[in-house]
Structure formats: C-alpha cells, structure tokens
Specification:
Blueprint lengths: L2 H29 L8 E6 L2 H11 L7 H6 L4 E7 L2 H12 L5 E7 L12 E11 L2 E13 H17 L5 H23 L1 H18 L6 H6 L1
Parallel strand pairs: 2-5
Antiparallel strand pairs: 1-2, 3-4, 4-5
Helix pairs in contact: 5-6
C-alpha cells in the first residue's frame, strides 16, 4: 500500500461512517412518522488530481503530511440535500448537537452568497476514526443545500473545469441569473411547503395501500 493510500484511508472510513450516520438520521424521521429534512446524502474522498490542484493553489507540498491534513479541510466531503431552504437550518442544528463529531467552522453561503451566485451551507467537522493503530481525528466538510442549489452548483463546477475559473462575461452573467432563478424556485416551493408535503404524504399512503401484500411463510402454510 502506497503513502497516499495509507494517508487517505482514514478519510475514506470517515466518509463511509458519516454517510451511514447521516442517512440514519433521515430514517429516524420516517420511523417517527414525520417528514425528514434530509432528502438524500452523498459522500466522496477528494481525488488525488484535485488534491494536487488545491496544493498548488495553497502553495503547500503535494505530499501526505500533517500540514496537508490541517490546511485542506475538504479531503473528506459529504453533501446533504434538502427539499426546502428552511430544512437546512434544521439539519445544521442536528449536526451541532451530535456527540460523535465536533463542529470546527461554519460558512453560510446562503445568506452571504458568493459573487458567482453559489449558495450552500458548509460545516467543517472533526471526526474521530478508530483504526488498528489508534484513533485519528480527521477533518470533513459537510455541504448542506437544496436540490435547486445543487443543480446549479453541479453545472457551475463542470463549466469551471472548462474555463479554468475564468468565465466569459456572457456565461458569467447567465450563471448569475440562473442562480437567482434557482433561489426564487426554492422560495416559491417554501411558500407552498405544507401543500407539497401533504401531497407527498397522500401519495405515499396511496402507493402503500395499492401495493400487493406479500404473504409470509406462516400465512402460506395456513392457506
């Protein structure tokens, strides 16, 4: 196993464990019969090519080190999608009250959007990973955003690779207008949130009622 594999292994473990725990939060809402503020959760470990680009930006050596671990806070990255903007604050509160991680920093790009139009809520957390060599505390970035915010961010991310961060003025203006349109969509959906959730609950009930019931082994034997 190479140096990078050894260095990134705790980050991979952190992503896997946090994905399970965050998805578990979503399931608990369903068990309690309430609507979850979490739509779905994804996670990844930053690829080596992206780590290399980031080290060049920060002016630090491209090598596994404590300096890299301290200065690059998003090697382990998780993303939580929400249906509504208001759900984001609910999720951040749930994360803050957890005992299995420590929130180190919060950046609100929703209230204070980036000049590009980017909106999301970022939390940097310290998460303890138990390894065969003892406990290792790793930093992870959790991004919390709506589906509309994520759609815009995914498009902007792809274009960023093409234009190396320097967009033509027309593309830049269109992206900013699209960001505002996405946020207006979020606000409109929030204004009819109760109607949407009632419709979703009704749909789930009808779907469950119309699904054929699969008999258990005992029921088959009785028949």
């Amino acid at each position: 196993m190479g140096q990078w594999d050894i260095f990134l292994s705790p980050y991979k473990q952190a992503v896997d464990e946090l994905k399970i725990k965050l998805k578990g939060m979503r399931s608990q809402f369903g068990i309690q019969g309430s609507t979850s503020p979490i739509e779905f959760v994804t996670g990844r470990v930053k690829p080596l090519a992206s780590i290399y680009d980031k080290t060049r930006e920060k002016g630090i050596p491209f090598e596994p080190s404590e300096q890299l671990a301290a200065q690059m806070q998003d090697i382990a990255g998780l993303r939580i999608m929400c249906q509504f903007v208001d759900d984001i604050s609910t999720v951040t509160k749930l994360i803050r009250q957890r005992d299995d991680l420590r929130v180190m920093e919060e950046i609100d790009y929703i209230t204070h959007k980036k000049p590009s139009g980017y909106r999301s809520y970022h939390m940097i957390v310290e998460y303890p990973v138990e390894t065969i060599n003892g406990k290792i505390n790793v930093l992870a970035e959790i991004q919390i955003r709506t589906l509309a915010m994520n759609f815009w961010a995914s498009i902007e991310h792809s274009l960023n690779y093409k234009y190396k961060g320097i967009f033509p003025e027309e593309i830049n203006n269109r992206l900013q207008r699209a960001a505002e349109a996405a946020f207006q969509l979020d606000e409109e959906m929030s204004s009819i949130r109760s109607e949407i959730q009632e419709a979703q609950a009704y749909f789930s009930e009808v779907k469950e009622a119309t699904n054929p019931k699969i008999p258990t082994k005992q029921e088959k034997e009785r028949d």
